[in-house]
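User: Predict structure, ligand zinc ion.
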Amino acid sequence: MHMAVAAGLSGVVLSCHPIGATQEHANAPERFGPWQSSMEILRPEPLPGCENGCMKEYAHCINQIRVEDVVKSMEKIIESSDKEYIVELDIDICRGWRYGNM
Ligand SMILES: [Zn+2]
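Assistant: Predicted complex:
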């Protein structure tokens, strides 16, 4: 993410840090996320026990981010850009990956 920002690229960042959690947490995108960039950050709603930051050592709250929301964000970036992109995304593969790691 930081390398992409340094290269001037746009993109979508999936943060494990739940919406509404403290900005002082090490995973808070407000504190350690992309700085002065057009990166779009998607964050999950907190699951019980993770209101101040996801406390699990495995993919937990971040699994609340839907593949469809990532695709929507990517489409928004592409539509607002004057660059040409080649995008190939197999939603079914993403879903399999998402649920295969839970
Ligand atoms: Zn969590």
